[in-house]
Amino acid sequence: MENPILKRRSVRKFKETPVSREMIDKLLEAAMAAPSACNKRPVDFYVITDEEKLQEISMAGRFTRMKAPLIILVVGNLKRALPLQLADYWIHDAAAASENILIEATALGLGSCWCGIHPQKRMMQKVSQILGLGEKQLPFSLIKIGHPDEFPEPHSGYDKSRVTFLE
Amino acid sequence: MENPILKRRSVRKFKETPVSREMIDKLLEAAMAAPSACNKRPVDFYVITDEEKLQEISMAGRFTRMKAPLIILVVGNLKRALPLQLADYWIHDAAAASENILIEATALGLGSCWCGIHPQKRMMQKVSQILGLGEKQLPFSLIKIGHPDEFPEPHSGYDKSRVTFLE
Question: Does domain B4-151 have CATH number 3.40.109.10?
Answer without folding.
Answer: yes
